């Protein structure tokens, strides 16, 4: 394909499951650059490698399962480089950087990259939870990079990293992106992005869309992690009062932050996601189970942090944050 020889105009930061999935989806129309940590590279160039994707089978598979025989893995050319050592010259043609690391890794991944980016690059942050956009805005200001634009987004696609440069898609879902700061993307690049990511759309109020998703995460993620259950168990009547109370605090804080949400709609959305993802284990449940760092600080923790700015009390969300921190610390011992 001819586009494989053109210099990359999109960089994907994060060679985790979602980063590799988005990279694969973009290869239908371009060859992006995948920036990861600890790639062992033989040359100082952006290096050619192979990326393997197992398409979505319709079933939830774990890392130890084999994909069904009828779904052959797809392998394609992939351009890689190291996040830490990539040079401004190797990034010279980049117009868009899609950041697919965990929410707690965003600031550390992006801060050293900012000075190497060409003028007028756009960043798109794609993670669970909220908060890193404020850290990125600070970093842009500190480094006097007012020319860099910021887009925010959220994806409900799911994937599992099988091994290095090998990913399995484990779920489909909506991706929403929206403009947050600076200039907007060139229309052609925006169309390419929306066409490449299935079920993606542009939101004219991305903070509203992110808060809507945040409320769902504030209820499902800590409760499933604490109860050690799948999402579907939260449909039981005994959880409804707690879910309502979590959502009520979120709606109040969002309003103080200038984002108007309906409590009834928010609770209805939470219950709808519980039904639609009944057999899934939430990301926080899995993080706790596998003793990984959770995104609690960027989920219920973000609500608490914004609440304190507005002198609002968020006892229920704070208690969930404390409980998850206690569980993960206990597990770390
Ligand atoms: O974090 C997650 O797991 C997902 O965002 C959600 C929507 C809670 C479903 O599991």
Strand order, largest beta sheet: 8-9-3-4-2-1-5-6-7-10-11
User: In the CATH hierarchy, what is the architecture of the largest domain at level 2?
Assistant: 3-Layer(aba) Sandwich
Low-confidence parts, pLDDT < 50 over ≥5 residues?
A: none
**CATH H-level name of the largest domain... which superfamily?**
NAD(P)-binding Rossmann-like Domain
CATH class of the largest domain: Alpha Beta
Q: Helical content, roughly?
A: 25-40%
Average pLDDT for all residues: 93
What is the C-alpha radius of gyration, as a whole number of Å?
20 Å
- Alpha-beta classification: alpha/beta
Determine the number of helices (DSSP H or I, runs of at least 4 residues).
Answer: 10
Write the layout of secondary structure elements.
Blueprint: E1 10-13, H1 17-26, E2 33-36, E3 47-54, E4 74-82, E5 96-99, H2 106-114, E6 122-126, H3 132-142, E7 149-155, E8 158-163, E9 166-171, E10 175-181, H4 187-196, E11 200-202, H5 206-227, H6 240-256, H7 263-276, H8 283-289, H9 300-309, H10 315-332
Parallel strand pairs: 1-2, 1-5, 2-4, 3-9, 5-6, 6-7, 10-11
Antiparallel strand pairs: 3-4, 7-10, 8-9
Helix pairs in contact: 2-3, 5-6, 5-7, 5-8, 5-10, 6-7, 6-9, 9-10
The structure holds pantoate (PAF).
């Amino acid at each position: 394909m001819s586009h494989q020889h053109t210099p990359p105009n999109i960089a994907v930061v994060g060679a985790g499951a979602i980063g590799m999935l988005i990279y694969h989806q973009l290869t239908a129309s371009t060859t992006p650059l995948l920036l990861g940590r600890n790639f062992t590279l033989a040359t100082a160039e952006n290096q050619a490698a192979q990326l393997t994707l197992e398409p979505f089978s319709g079933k939830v598979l774990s890392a130890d399962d084999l994909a069904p025989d009828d779904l052959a893995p797809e392998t394609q050319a992939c351009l890689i480089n190291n996040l830490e050592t990539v040079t401004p010259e190797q990034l010279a043609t980049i117009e868009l950087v899609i950041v697919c690391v965990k929410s707690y890794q965003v600031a550390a991944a992006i801060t050293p990259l900012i000075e190497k980016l060409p003028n007028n690059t756009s960043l798109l942050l794609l993670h669970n939870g909220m908060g890193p956009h404020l850290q990125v805005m600070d970093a842009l200001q500190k480094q006097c990079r007012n020319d860099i634009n910021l887009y925010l987004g959220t994806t409900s696609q799911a994937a599992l990293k099988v091994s290095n440069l090998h990913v399995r898609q484990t779920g489909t879902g909506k991706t929403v992106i929206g403009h947050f700061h600076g200039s907007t993307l060139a229309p052609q690049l925006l169309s390419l992005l929306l066409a490449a990511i299935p079920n993606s759309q542009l939101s004219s109020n991305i903070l509203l869309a992110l808060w809507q998703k945040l409320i769902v995460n504030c209820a499902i993620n800590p409760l499933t992690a604490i109860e050690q259950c799948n999402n579907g168990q939260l449909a039981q009547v005994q959880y409804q009062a707690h879910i309502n109370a979590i959502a009520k605090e979120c709606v109040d804080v969002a309003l103080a932050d200038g984002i108007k949400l309906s409590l009834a709609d928010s609770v209805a959305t939470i219950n709808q996601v519980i039904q639609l993802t009944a057999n899934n284990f939430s990301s926080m449940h899995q993080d706790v189970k596998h003793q990984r760092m959770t995104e609690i600080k960027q989920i219920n923790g973000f609500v608490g942090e914004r609440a304190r700015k507005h002198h609002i009390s968020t006892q229920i969300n704070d208690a969930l944050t404390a409980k998850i921190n206690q569980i993960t610390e206990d597990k770390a011992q």
